[in-house]
Amino acid sequence: MTALTRWHVGPWTTRGTRPGSPFEPGLKRTPDELNFDIVGLSRILGRRQTLPEEMLVRRCQAALRPTDPRPCGIQTLTDPDLARDLAETAERAFTWIAAQAPAGYEFALTDAVELRPLLDLDAPVVAIEAVITLAAAPLPAARLATSHVRRSASGDWYAGDAVCNWSGPHATEAEAIAAVEAAREDLRTQLQAAGREDLAATAPRWAPIPVEPG
Length: 214
Known about the structure:
With 214 residues, the chain is α+β, with helices and mostly antiparallel strands. Helices cover 39% and strands 12% of the residues. It has two domains: 10-115, no CATH class; 119-205, no CATH class. The chain contains seven helices and six strands.
């Protein structure tokens, strides 16, 4: 498994209903659908499935991902043994996913697989999102300060999140990184101005700016 080079705080799967809760068709996955998503996410992130797991996924595929368009939140496995096997596989898959969390973050399983910043200011690596969360104050530099750097198909470099670019285009990777570094320095200054010197003091331990290979 190659370490994650690009990530986002928040859900990494569609949200699902927990076992025993009423279904919400069109809004949330059923428990079986969510387990299937967890297994699929682990594979996308690089987990190698065993042969029995591959066969299990194929058996579940037809029931949970029919070819006709249906809303999520209604498909279940009628075979209880198959549902149990899928749930156990999803548990192993999530354990593997949790181990891939970048320094300063954790994967949590709620009604989705979510990446959260660890709110530990004494940790060797502090997620910048944790600082922003604990500040609980308007911080104009926050958006760009939390950005990742990536290269577009055109060859230009941008700084942004999983959805939007907040800076760029830049001619080089170094220029894009410099834009985020400047925003982080602005963020430190804004934290000090807000009376949160304790948070500003964590700046030397903020997680490095993620750079997606071009």
